[in-house]
Specification:
The protein is mostly helical. It contains four helices and two strands, in the order αβαααβ.
């Protein structure tokens, strides 16, 4: 009974806990960082890119480069 409550809570929050945060292989502009974040949270990659541009203006390049170097690549698909 407790597991059902946790699953429904995770489903309601929109965060998929089974997926690992990875760079996107299909939704890439530069390194796939914003596309990977968007896939993880289930939102539009355009929205993530706008957040990086407008909300993190002073340090957006540094944060993006750190994420680009530390996020693992997505597994190759056929």
């Amino acid at each position: 009974m407790k597991n059902r409550g946790k699953e429904s809570l995770n489903q309601r929050s929109g965060i998929n806990l089974r997926n690992k945060l990875r760079k996107s292989a299909t939704d890439r502009s530069l390194y796939g960082v914003c596309g990977g974040i968007a896939e993880y949270f289930g939102i539009s990659s355009f929205a993530v890119r706008l957040i990086f541009i407008f909300l993190l203006v002073p340090t957006n390049i540094i944060i993006y480069m750190i994420l680009a170097n530390t996020m693992s690549a997505s597994p190759p698909s056929l």
